[in-house]
Amino acid sequence: MRSKLLIILFLGMILILYTFDSVHNSSTRFTSSEDKTAAKNVVNHTDQDQGLVRPIVLGFSQLGSESAWRNANTISIREAAEEAGIELHFEDADQSQSKQFEAIRSFIKQKVDVIAIAPVIESGWEPILKEIKQAGIPLIILDRLVNVSDSSLYVTYIGSDFYEEGRKAGKYVIDKLSSKKEIVGIVELGGTEGSTPSIARGKGFRDVIKEHENLKILKSQAADFTFAQGKQVMKSFLNKMGNEINVLYSHNDDMALGAIEAIEEFGLRPGKDIIIVSVDGTNKAFEKMAEGKINSVVECNPLLGPNLMQAVNELMQGRSLPKRIVTPESVFTETMALEEVGKRKY
Ligand code: GYE
């Protein structure tokens, strides 16, 4: 009887100890389906105070949620972080640089392992980048670039070749219209003023069309990459010079979609009376291209999450990264639109 009681007591104690251990370590464990990837990413990453293995913490300052491209970019980053077992601290800055500064300072306070930024504009970053460096936190620049004199302030820049995108848009206009004898009037909807894609897409486009005297940019205005501003600015272009406009070059799809509404309300046919070339390659733009309302879309890939997580992991494993990681992209025209529409991930 007594020995039975002792065995029960002994088993009870083992159970209590085991439960305590599970609870104590729960923050460092992963559920079965995530076990492999998550465990892979925390190898060699131990908490020095407690000797425990814990996930890498990434602070990411997203610039906003102004477009379909941006939303796809955010989803890609969230999903890739989860898949990689990386703990993501995410802040949306609503297209405000000062809100990005606030987010970064809070990441420094939280002592995250790595910081990544998608910077809204290029200028004004040097002081805060120095704060990050002083805190000893490695920095990855994503999507858009920062204009700093000391490039050692960040580890790597992952993003598209926006200059090439602008050139591709220009080449489409040349192929389609440069043989015309008369002047071809072009209007341009720029993205956010001072942002890398807006600067480089504008320059690439100009650099290729400048050889052709009949291709003339009548007017260019920033419309912040949004549908609403795209529509409003296009409306003002049409009111000022409606009949002279032959081509619209839009720095992103959302502004082009807004402009299509303005063109139709003005009584012209988008894609026919006004040729439209846009950048991004979202599903909505493909739908409009299949309807013949957009003529060409230059692709810009927003699915940067896996690239970012890979860079974070490599960094934490002490590997060195290339200073520039570029994502490959294509150009689509009306004839390809029907095949492609509905297949896009964004
Ligand atoms: O083209 C636009 C977005 O920075 C590449 O930002 C990105 C651009 C993208 O708002 O749709």
What features would you describe in this structure?
The chain has helices at 2-25, 35-42, 68-84, 97-110, 126-134, 162-177, 196-209, 227-241, 253-266, 283-290, 305-316, 334-340, and strands at 46-47, 52-53, 57-62, 87-92, 114-117, 139-142, 156-159, 184-190, 215-222, 247-250, 275-280, 296-299, 324-326, 331-333. Helix content is 46%, strand content 18%. The protein is an alpha/beta fold and 346 residues long. The protein folds into two domains: 57-160 and 303-326, Rossmann fold; 162-300, Response regulator (Rossmann fold), CATH 3.40.50. The protein binds beta-D-fucofuranose (GYE).
Task: Compile the SSE list and pairings.
Elements (H helix, E strand, L loop, with lengths): L1 H24 L9 H8 L3 E2 L4 E2 L3 E6 L5 H17 L2 E6 L4 H14 L3 E4 L8 H9 L4 E4 L13 E4 L2 H16 L6 E7 L5 H14 L5 E8 L4 H15 L5 E4 L2 H14 L8 E6 L2 H8 L5 E4 L5 H12 L7 E3 L4 E3 H7 L6
Helix pairs in contact: 3-11, 6-7, 8-9, 10-12
Bound molecules: beta-D-fucofuranose.
Beta-D-fucofuranose binds next to helix 3 and strand 11.
